[in-house]
Amino acid sequence: MSVADEYLKNNAAYAKTYGQPSSHLPSRHVAIVACMDSRLNVSSLLGMNDGEAHVLRNGGGVVTDDMIRSLALSQRLLGTTDIILIHHTDCGLAKTTEDEFKGAIEAETGIRPPWAVEAFTDAAADVRQSIGRLKASPFIPHKDHVRGFVFDVATGSLNEVI
Amino acid sequence: MSVTDEYLKNNEAYAAQFGGLLPLPPASHVAVVACMDARLNVYGILGLKEGEAHVIRNAGGVVTDDEIRSLAISQRLLGTTEIILIHHTDCGMLTFTDDGFKRSIQDETGIKPEWAAEAFTDLDEDVRQSIARIKASPFVPHKDSIRGFVFAVATGKLNEVV
Q1: pLDDT at residue A1 above 80?
Q2: Prediction pTM value
Q3: Domains recognised in chain A with CATH numbers
Protein backbone atom coordinates (compact mmCIF):
# COMPACT_ATOMS: atom_id res chain seq x y z
CA MET A 1 0.00 0.00 0.00
CA SER A 2 1.42 3.39 -1.00
CA VAL A 3 1.41 6.28 1.42
CA ALA A 4 -1.35 7.89 -0.67
CA ASP A 5 -3.55 4.81 -0.18
CA GLU A 6 -2.97 4.96 3.55
CA TYR A 7 -3.97 8.64 3.55
CA LEU A 8 -7.13 7.76 1.57
CA LYS A 9 -8.11 5.36 4.34
CA ASN A 10 -7.56 8.17 6.83
CA ASN A 11 -9.75 10.42 4.68
CA ALA A 12 -12.65 7.97 4.81
CA ALA A 13 -12.57 8.26 8.62
CA TYR A 14 -12.25 12.06 8.42
CA ALA A 15 -15.29 12.37 6.16
CA LYS A 16 -17.48 10.55 8.73
CA THR A 17 -17.12 13.32 11.29
CA TYR A 18 -16.56 16.22 8.89
CA GLY A 19 -18.63 19.36 9.38
CA GLN A 20 -18.67 21.70 6.42
CA PRO A 21 -17.67 25.29 7.24
CA SER A 22 -20.51 27.65 6.45
CA SER A 23 -18.74 29.87 3.91
CA HIS A 24 -15.95 29.80 1.36
CA LEU A 25 -14.86 33.22 2.65
CA PRO A 26 -12.27 32.96 5.46
CA SER A 27 -14.24 33.89 8.59
CA ARG A 28 -11.31 35.63 10.34
CA HIS A 29 -10.20 37.51 7.18
CA VAL A 30 -6.65 36.23 7.56
CA ALA A 31 -4.16 34.77 5.08
CA ILE A 32 -1.17 32.83 6.43
CA VAL A 33 2.03 32.48 4.38
CA ALA A 34 4.17 29.69 5.84
CA CYS A 35 6.97 27.31 4.95
CA MET A 36 6.04 23.88 3.55
CA ASP A 37 8.09 22.20 6.31
CA SER A 38 6.46 19.00 7.54
CA ARG A 39 6.79 20.03 11.19
CA LEU A 40 4.60 23.12 10.79
CA ASN A 41 1.02 22.10 11.41
CA VAL A 42 -0.28 25.60 10.78
CA SER A 43 -3.85 25.06 11.99
CA SER A 44 -2.68 23.52 15.26
CA LEU A 45 0.15 25.90 16.04
CA LEU A 46 -2.22 28.85 15.64
CA GLY A 47 -5.24 27.11 17.14
CA MET A 48 -7.33 27.79 14.02
CA ASN A 49 -10.62 26.13 13.20
CA ASP A 50 -11.60 25.08 9.69
CA GLY A 51 -12.86 27.97 7.58
CA GLU A 52 -10.97 30.72 9.37
CA ALA A 53 -7.98 31.57 7.18
CA HIS A 54 -6.32 30.98 3.85
CA VAL A 55 -3.11 28.99 4.20
CA LEU A 56 -0.41 29.56 1.59
CA ARG A 57 2.79 27.51 1.80
CA ASN A 58 5.93 27.05 -0.26
CA GLY A 59 9.60 26.26 0.16
CA GLY A 60 10.72 28.74 2.85
CA GLY A 61 7.43 30.59 3.20
CA VAL A 62 9.05 33.29 1.08
CA VAL A 63 7.00 35.85 -0.84
CA THR A 64 7.31 35.00 -4.52
CA ASP A 65 5.11 36.05 -7.45
CA ASP A 66 2.94 33.00 -6.76
CA MET A 67 2.32 34.17 -3.19
CA ILE A 68 1.53 37.68 -4.50
CA ARG A 69 -0.93 36.10 -6.97
CA SER A 70 -2.52 34.06 -4.19
CA LEU A 71 -2.69 37.00 -1.76
CA ALA A 72 -4.15 39.25 -4.47
CA LEU A 73 -6.95 36.69 -5.00
CA SER A 74 -7.34 36.21 -1.24
CA GLN A 75 -7.78 39.93 -0.55
CA ARG A 76 -9.52 41.10 -3.72
CA LEU A 77 -11.98 38.25 -4.24
CA LEU A 78 -12.29 36.57 -0.85
CA GLY A 79 -12.15 39.40 1.64
CA THR A 80 -9.00 38.84 3.73
CA THR A 81 -7.22 41.85 5.18
CA ASP A 82 -4.58 40.48 7.60
CA ILE A 83 -1.40 38.60 6.66
CA ILE A 84 0.68 36.40 8.98
CA LEU A 85 4.08 35.15 7.77
CA ILE A 86 5.70 32.09 9.37
CA HIS A 87 9.29 31.01 8.75
CA HIS A 88 11.02 28.59 11.14
CA THR A 89 14.29 27.45 12.67
CA ASP A 90 16.21 24.52 11.10
CA CYS A 91 14.87 25.38 7.62
CA GLY A 92 16.17 23.46 4.59
CA LEU A 93 16.57 26.70 2.65
CA ALA A 94 19.16 27.89 5.16
CA LYS A 95 21.27 24.82 4.36
CA THR A 96 21.94 25.49 0.68
CA THR A 97 22.77 28.41 -1.61
CA GLU A 98 21.38 29.57 -4.94
CA ASP A 99 24.52 28.53 -6.81
CA GLU A 100 24.96 25.19 -5.06
CA PHE A 101 21.35 24.06 -5.59
CA LYS A 102 21.03 25.32 -9.16
CA GLY A 103 24.52 24.07 -10.02
CA ALA A 104 23.57 20.56 -8.88
CA ILE A 105 20.44 20.60 -11.05
CA GLU A 106 22.40 21.92 -14.01
CA ALA A 107 25.09 19.25 -13.57
CA GLU A 108 22.46 16.51 -13.52
CA THR A 109 19.93 17.68 -16.11
CA GLY A 110 21.91 20.12 -18.26
CA ILE A 111 19.32 22.81 -17.51
CA ARG A 112 19.72 25.62 -14.98
CA PRO A 113 16.40 26.64 -13.41
CA PRO A 114 15.32 30.13 -14.47
CA TRP A 115 13.86 30.76 -11.00
CA ALA A 116 15.56 31.75 -7.75
CA VAL A 117 15.82 28.99 -5.12
CA GLU A 118 15.20 31.65 -2.43
CA ALA A 119 17.89 30.27 -0.11
CA PHE A 120 18.61 32.42 2.94
CA THR A 121 20.97 32.51 5.91
CA ASP A 122 18.94 34.31 8.58
CA ALA A 123 15.29 33.41 9.18
CA ALA A 124 14.36 36.75 10.78
CA ALA A 125 16.04 38.72 7.98
CA ASP A 126 14.15 36.61 5.44
CA VAL A 127 10.84 37.37 7.16
CA ARG A 128 11.65 41.08 6.84
CA GLN A 129 12.55 40.52 3.18
CA SER A 130 9.18 38.86 2.58
CA ILE A 131 7.32 41.68 4.33
CA GLY A 132 9.29 44.17 2.21
CA ARG A 133 8.20 42.39 -0.98
CA LEU A 134 4.56 42.41 0.13
CA LYS A 135 4.65 46.10 0.93
CA ALA A 136 6.28 46.86 -2.44
CA SER A 137 3.62 45.01 -4.45
CA PRO A 138 1.02 47.14 -6.23
CA PHE A 139 -1.36 44.17 -6.36
CA ILE A 140 -1.98 43.70 -2.62
CA PRO A 141 -4.51 46.26 -1.40
CA HIS A 142 -4.41 45.63 2.40
CA LYS A 143 -0.99 46.03 3.99
CA ASP A 144 -1.75 47.61 7.37
CA HIS A 145 -1.88 44.28 9.22
CA VAL A 146 1.18 42.27 8.20
CA ARG A 147 3.09 40.46 10.95
CA GLY A 148 5.97 38.01 10.67
CA PHE A 149 7.15 35.20 12.94
CA VAL A 150 9.83 32.55 13.25
CA PHE A 151 8.46 29.23 14.52
CA ASP A 152 10.89 27.39 16.78
CA VAL A 153 10.73 23.70 15.74
CA ALA A 154 12.36 22.69 19.04
CA THR A 155 9.83 24.39 21.32
CA GLY A 156 6.69 24.96 19.23
CA SER A 157 6.76 28.71 19.97
CA LEU A 158 6.27 31.60 17.56
CA ASN A 159 8.71 34.48 17.95
CA GLU A 160 7.72 37.76 16.33
CA VAL A 161 10.10 39.50 13.96
CA ILE A 162 10.11 43.23 14.58
CA MET B 1 -7.34 42.09 20.46
CA SER B 2 -6.53 41.37 16.82
CA VAL B 3 -6.99 37.91 15.30
CA THR B 4 -3.21 37.58 15.18
CA ASP B 5 -2.95 38.25 18.91
CA GLU B 6 -5.61 35.63 19.56
CA TYR B 7 -3.65 33.11 17.48
CA LEU B 8 -0.51 33.98 19.47
CA LYS B 9 -2.32 33.13 22.68
CA ASN B 10 -3.36 29.82 21.10
CA ASN B 11 0.29 29.22 20.21
CA GLU B 12 1.30 29.52 23.87
CA ALA B 13 -1.03 26.63 24.66
CA TYR B 14 0.32 24.67 21.67
CA ALA B 15 3.94 25.18 22.78
CA ALA B 16 3.09 24.07 26.32
CA GLN B 17 2.02 20.67 24.95
CA PHE B 18 4.65 20.53 22.18
CA GLY B 19 6.23 17.12 21.54
CA GLY B 20 9.75 18.33 20.72
CA LEU B 21 12.11 18.43 17.77
CA LEU B 22 11.40 16.17 14.79
CA PRO B 23 13.79 15.50 11.87
CA LEU B 24 13.82 17.94 8.94
CA PRO B 25 13.18 15.39 6.12
CA PRO B 26 9.51 14.33 5.90
CA ALA B 27 9.09 10.84 7.39
CA SER B 28 6.59 9.66 4.74
CA HIS B 29 8.59 11.06 1.81
CA VAL B 30 5.45 12.79 0.54
CA ALA B 31 4.82 16.32 -0.71
CA VAL B 32 1.21 17.54 -0.84
CA VAL B 33 0.23 20.39 -3.19
CA ALA B 34 -3.16 21.83 -2.21
CA CYS B 35 -5.37 24.90 -2.55
CA MET B 36 -5.10 27.62 0.11
CA ASP B 37 -8.86 27.42 0.76
CA ALA B 38 -9.77 27.96 4.43
CA ARG B 39 -11.91 24.81 4.51
CA LEU B 40 -9.03 22.47 3.61
CA ASN B 41 -7.34 21.24 6.78
CA VAL B 42 -4.75 19.17 4.96
CA TYR B 43 -3.53 17.49 8.17
CA GLY B 44 -7.05 16.44 9.09
CA ILE B 45 -8.12 15.44 5.58
CA LEU B 46 -5.17 13.06 5.11
CA GLY B 47 -4.62 12.12 8.73
CA LEU B 48 -1.12 13.62 8.56
CA LYS B 49 0.97 13.97 11.68
CA GLU B 50 3.65 16.59 12.21
CA GLY B 51 6.88 15.59 10.48
CA GLU B 52 5.31 13.39 7.80
CA ALA B 53 4.89 15.43 4.64
CA HIS B 54 5.67 18.75 3.03
CA VAL B 55 2.54 20.83 2.50
CA ILE B 56 2.68 23.29 -0.38
CA ARG B 57 -0.36 25.51 -0.91
CA ASN B 58 -1.41 28.38 -3.15
CA ALA B 59 -4.54 29.75 -4.77
CA GLY B 60 -6.09 26.82 -6.63
CA GLY B 61 -3.38 24.32 -5.73
CA VAL B 62 -2.15 24.84 -9.28
CA VAL B 63 1.39 23.98 -10.30
CA THR B 64 3.29 27.19 -11.01
CA ASP B 65 7.04 27.83 -11.11
CA ASP B 66 6.93 28.37 -7.35
CA GLU B 67 5.44 24.88 -6.81
CA ILE B 68 8.13 23.43 -9.11
CA ARG B 69 10.77 25.26 -7.05
CA SER B 70 9.26 23.94 -3.82
CA LEU B 71 8.94 20.37 -5.18
CA ALA B 72 12.54 20.48 -6.47
CA ILE B 73 13.73 21.45 -2.97
CA SER B 74 11.43 18.84 -1.39
CA GLN B 75 12.70 15.98 -3.57
CA ARG B 76 16.33 16.95 -4.13
CA LEU B 77 17.26 18.24 -0.68
CA LEU B 78 14.77 16.57 1.60
CA GLY B 79 14.12 13.15 0.10
CA THR B 80 10.44 13.12 -0.86
CA THR B 81 9.39 10.88 -3.76
CA GLU B 82 5.56 10.93 -3.83
CA ILE B 83 3.31 13.86 -4.76
CA ILE B 84 -0.37 14.28 -3.85
CA LEU B 85 -2.38 17.10 -5.47
CA ILE B 86 -5.60 18.38 -3.89
CA HIS B 87 -8.05 20.74 -5.59
CA HIS B 88 -11.61 21.13 -4.24
CA THR B 89 -15.23 21.77 -5.11
CA ASP B 90 -16.65 25.31 -4.74
CA CYS B 91 -13.20 26.78 -5.47
CA GLY B 92 -12.88 30.54 -5.88
CA MET B 93 -10.78 29.95 -9.00
CA LEU B 94 -13.96 28.79 -10.78
CA THR B 95 -15.66 32.16 -10.24
CA PHE B 96 -13.61 34.55 -12.39
CA THR B 97 -11.47 34.69 -15.53
CA ASP B 98 -7.81 35.62 -15.85
CA ASP B 99 -8.72 38.45 -18.21
CA GLY B 100 -11.41 39.86 -15.91
CA PHE B 101 -9.29 39.66 -12.74
CA LYS B 102 -6.25 41.23 -14.33
CA ARG B 103 -8.40 43.92 -15.94
CA SER B 104 -9.87 44.85 -12.55
CA ILE B 105 -6.38 45.22 -11.06
CA GLN B 106 -5.23 47.26 -14.03
CA ASP B 107 -8.27 49.52 -13.76
CA GLU B 108 -7.59 50.13 -10.07
CA THR B 109 -3.80 50.36 -9.95
CA GLY B 110 -2.81 51.16 -13.52
CA ILE B 111 -0.60 48.07 -13.58
CA LYS B 112 -1.43 44.73 -15.20
CA PRO B 113 0.05 41.77 -13.33
CA GLU B 114 2.73 39.97 -15.33
CA TRP B 115 1.61 36.63 -13.85
CA ALA B 116 -1.33 34.41 -14.79
CA ALA B 117 -4.19 34.35 -12.27
CA GLU B 118 -4.67 30.60 -13.06
CA ALA B 119 -8.47 30.62 -13.10
CA PHE B 120 -10.07 27.42 -14.37
CA THR B 121 -13.49 26.05 -15.30
CA ASP B 122 -13.17 22.30 -14.73
CA LEU B 123 -11.67 20.85 -11.55
CA ASP B 124 -10.64 17.46 -12.91
CA GLU B 125 -9.09 19.03 -15.97
CA ASP B 126 -7.11 21.46 -13.80
CA VAL B 127 -5.79 18.61 -11.65
CA ARG B 128 -4.66 16.87 -14.84
CA GLN B 129 -3.12 20.13 -16.05
CA SER B 130 -1.15 20.42 -12.80
CA ILE B 131 0.06 16.82 -13.05
CA ALA B 132 1.13 17.41 -16.66
CA ARG B 133 3.14 20.48 -15.63
CA ILE B 134 5.01 18.44 -13.02
CA LYS B 135 5.67 15.65 -15.51
CA ALA B 136 6.98 18.17 -18.06
CA SER B 137 9.41 19.77 -15.60
CA PRO B 138 13.09 18.83 -15.89
CA PHE B 139 13.65 19.94 -12.26
CA VAL B 140 11.44 17.41 -10.43
CA PRO B 141 13.25 14.05 -10.43
CA HIS B 142 10.60 11.67 -9.00
CA LYS B 143 7.42 11.47 -11.07
CA ASP B 144 6.32 7.85 -10.78
CA SER B 145 3.96 8.42 -7.83
CA ILE B 146 1.82 11.46 -8.55
CA ARG B 147 -1.87 11.27 -7.72
CA GLY B 148 -4.49 13.98 -7.95
CA PHE B 149 -7.74 14.46 -6.02
CA VAL B 150 -10.73 16.75 -5.73
CA PHE B 151 -11.81 17.36 -2.12
CA ALA B 152 -15.58 17.69 -1.74
CA VAL B 153 -16.10 20.55 0.73
CA ALA B 154 -19.66 19.38 1.37
CA THR B 155 -18.73 15.84 2.45
CA GLY B 156 -15.04 15.94 3.42
CA LYS B 157 -14.20 13.21 0.91
CA LEU B 158 -11.32 13.01 -1.57
CA ASN B 159 -12.22 11.83 -5.05
CA GLU B 160 -9.37 10.68 -7.24
CA VAL B 161 -8.90 12.17 -10.69
CA VAL B 162 -8.00 9.45 -13.14
Answers
A1: no
A2: 0.97
A3: 23-161 (3.40.1050.10)
